[in-house]
């Protein structure tokens, strides 16, 4: 038994070859090219039709040298000529070859790929002809064949049939070969492959073929329902075997009864199946309805949550907007109240720089100043500090002495003769501390006197000095002076005591009353005490009454004073507000008057300008109209004059021609006497009217000459 192992080698620079690994029409021309089915054949055909090789670049001569996207230099067009000739069959011939090979196998004809009919050239199994040995034998029967079966070749002539009378069928030009792959059938295709089968002639139809109608997903893999169906089919076949034959007329009634009973059972089973199907559908419908209700409920809850969150966001945004507007309006009012009269104040630079909360040190962002806008420029952004790999790389670049410190014990310094002051002081303190510590811890031990010690005598005191005795008269005088001093000192002390007694006489009397021993003095003292207490009580009552009266008076006066002060303060505030409002009204009135004056001035200027413009427009239009009228009048008059002149000339010419014609006719027919008469009439018509005109002028009345209406010839 041979085992084939497939290995995949990845070659380097495989994409740099000068040829493609697969041509477009290999599925039609290449005999080694193999497709697994009709779908792959159709896919390869579609790829060939949609290949880029059939696309041609057709230049546009109008914009051949253009680089603009809306005026391309060329357009892409599909070549209409088909590269495959018309006599080439494009259909997939897999089914035809399979049927042909099955017929050859049934006719005991050995397929041609194992042997060469012409030339008898040896084929190498591991060489270029290895693909010829991948064909699996076609098993035309539905029998289980063990995998170790090897089909032996017939001993007869492989190029002839068993009878030996006919020639071998020609080997097909193309065939689909089975090739081993690295993928399983479940990964390479969706439906399991079912091979073709042929029932051996003369054999019974196997039971397995009754399941041929089942396909993957429709009965396969088999479940409980399919097993029950198979059992029912077996029971029905057994029942059909027990039926009486059709040619036995005596058992027709029995056959009919059995068939009716079986039909009732089938109808009952069918009703049960329909009931189960309806129950399953009802359960499925209930589940779908429940799922739909849950989905609708979830959608409703999500919509309500969305609406609620939207309302909450709107409310928050409105509240924040109201707060911001309130803060802005309060700031504006505060700024306006600081400068009611509208006076201009200069900037106090010293105050701004002395106050650390001013705009100089802390500018407000609402004004448009952001001091921390470009603060990120000063931040250090390095890959070595932001990432773990950068830290590892930075640590790898440090010297070993930093990552692995070596600690050494400090070596005591040896002085070379010079000691610092701090060291000397520390040494002295240590010595003093050690001495005190030893003094505290030391315990004196009494020693026994083993030897006599010599006692040293103290140093004797010096002699007392001696004063010489004074003379006799001086001593008496000195004693008299001392006595006089004593008298004076005693008298001064007595005077001081008397003055103190006078000053503290009441205290002395109080002490005497307290420490009096006589009964009379005690009674007198008691009477004095009662009198003093009575007087004190009266004084207290009088003081209390006076204080009450003063309190009532103060309360009344205070209430009146409070009311008056409250009224005065309110009046003062009202007066100040009234004055402020009056000032506001005066300012507003002044602004209104100024604005009205400005507006009236602007209105007067506008009206005057409008009147001037209207007058200018009227004058211009009048000039234009007069110009047009004069132009039209000149044109009309000129046209009338020209027309009248032309008509008069034409009329004169016509009349002159008529008169000439008449005159010529009369000249031809008249005599000399008639000519003289005409001349006389003409002279009369010219001379007589002039004479009459002169006469009338002399008389002072108008003269209307008579013009002859007709000329008599």
TrEMBL record:
<dbReference type="Pfam" id="PF14738">
    <property type="entry name" value="CFAP91"/>
</dbReference>
<dbReference type="InterPro" id="IPR026720">
    <property type="entry name" value="CFAP91"/>
</dbReference>
<feature type="domain" description="CFAP91">
    <location>
        <begin position="179"/>
        <end position="332"/>
    </location>
</feature>
<dbReference type="InterPro" id="IPR032840">
    <property type="entry name" value="CFAP91_dom"/>
</dbReference>
<protein>
    <recommendedName>
        <fullName>Cilia- and flagella-associated protein 91</fullName>
    </recommendedName>
</protein>
<keyword id="KW-0206">Cytoskeleton</keyword>
<dbReference type="GO" id="GO:0005930">
    <property type="term" value="C:axoneme"/>
</dbReference>
<keyword id="KW-0966">Cell projection</keyword>
<keyword id="KW-0963">Cytoplasm</keyword>
<comment type="similarity">
    <text>Belongs to the CFAP91 family.</text>
</comment>
